[in-house]
Amino acid sequence: MDKTTSFEENQAMLKWLNRNRKQLFEMYRGEYVAYTKERLLAHDEQIEEVLKRAEESGETYAIYLVPRSTQHIQFLSFSYFRSVVRQEWFPNYQIKLKNEDKELSLAMLVDSGAELSLIPLPVGQALGLSLAKAEAPLIAETIGGRVEYVTRNLEMTINGYSFSAPVAWLQSLTDVEQLLLGREVVFDRFNIEFRQAEETMIFSWREDS
């Protein structure tokens, strides 16, 4: 999707996601969903199928990976930690990731405890990422065992501001996957205010960044 969306449109899509997150979790856990500010466009375990059907609609959309459980995984210092989520609100924010001529608008979980941003294997493939010849993935120790990942610098766009930031791209499928927005670069570029009671976040661009 190459259509530029306004801040207001992104916020409207996030409001739709927050209103319908419980229903999405009950019906489509473990699937990718494409949604607009008004409705669900497509859902499937294969992101390629979701993107195809969403593009065919001609509407402006974003992608969200519905978690398989109410636990979430944090990518912190190259390790995973699981915690039980007790509140209904998830601090997701609309982020655009771009690699060369491919880009995706994604709802990513903003995680101040995560060192790096993280994307699952299928999302990186949809962005056209690939391993270099003879490139050896890094290893992360997790509660459930080891996972392989590589880092890539991707163009991020948040609230109309674009910059390059490192992203950990998983090289294997895990039982619990999420799209995470971590601290590296992002938290240097923005002042981020969490307003849990209002179920919203405010990203303010740092002029000195």
Descriptive tags:
single chain, about 210 residues, alpha+beta, Cathepsin D, subunit A, domain 1, seven-stranded mixed beta sheet, three-stranded antiparallel beta sheet, about 20% helix, globular, Retropepsin-like domain-containing protein
Q: What is the approximate shape?
A: globular
Calculate the terminal CA-CA distance, rounded to whole Å: 28 Å
Radius of gyration: 16 Å
- SSE order in H/E notation? HEEHEEEEEEHEEEEHEE
Strand content: 35-45%
Could you tell me the mean pLDDT?
87
Protein name: Retropepsin-like domain-containing protein
Give a summary of the structure in a few sentences.
The protein is α+β, with helices and mostly antiparallel strands and 209 residues long.
Q: How would you portray this structure in words?
A:
This is Retropepsin-like domain-containing protein. It contains four helices and 14 strands. It has 209 residues and is α+β, with helices and mostly antiparallel strands. It has one domain (7-205): Cathepsin D, subunit A, domain 1, CATH 2.40.70. The strands form four sheets. Strands 6, 7, 8, 9, 10, 11 and 12 form a seven-stranded mixed β-sheet that branches. It has a three-stranded antiparallel β-sheet with strand order 2-1-3, sandwiched between helices. Strands 4-5 form a two-stranded antiparallel sheet. A hairpin with a 2-residue loop joins strand 4 and strand 5 (79-84). It is globular.
